[in-house]
Amino acid sequence: MTTNFDFSGRSVLVTGASSGIGRSTVELLRASGARVVAAARRVDELARLAEETGCEPLELDVGDPAAIAAALDPCEVFDGLVNCAGTTVLERAVDTKAESFDYVMAVNARGAALVTRYVARAMIEAKRAGSIVNVSSQAGLVALEDHLSYSASKAAMDSITRTLCIELGGYGIRVNSVNPTVTLTPMAVKAWSDPAKSGPALQAIPLKRFAQPREVAEPILFLLSDASSMISGVMLPIDGGYTAR
Q1: Which among 14, 59, 57 has a CA at the least distance from the CA of 32?
Q2: Which residues have a catalytic role annotated?
Q3: Which of 37, 119, 233, 245 has a CA that sits 20 to 30 A from residue 82's CA?
Q4: pTM for this prediction
């Protein structure tokens, strides 16, 4: 059952909006009355999302600082930001390549920090309180094999969340992370289709299943909403109990 939120009159920027959790977040925000600027690299998927939901598409590669500056400097004033853009390269720790590590960190951690810089500046200058939600991962909270670069980037994102919470709180801007388990985006469905791979992972989740994108998007809406007005600096696991072990 979906919780109803009212975001009428509010505007939210969502990165990584073309698929998965980002796309589901845009859909729910639009259904809740928000004006949404949906940012991603895939212009074809953005165009389809805009046609389906009425969001405003913005082509953006968060791994490119120049592209972020071109898109967001100057930045309009938003009420909310969802840093959902992300990537991963899975390698054994002893095989980790410098270029892989740098690429994943640039997109997942640096990208979120730089996008937030422009959005937060505009909010502060306009004296606009609001909420920022970073889409992290359970990999930022616990160790996972073959995830060194990804885990490091998500742990960095959680650290960014805590720092932003401290620095922006005085302006009425709340900052939180959500930390989902495997979420069944179309790509993840293929990646986890082998029972030999998915079986042990599912056994480690007390609820014995992976998450659906909507099950992550709805807590994101909660953290964007006034229902969470005293919540900031939190890393919220959305993992069926995985990190409780």
Answers
A1: 14
A2: 150, 154
A3: 245
A4: 0.95
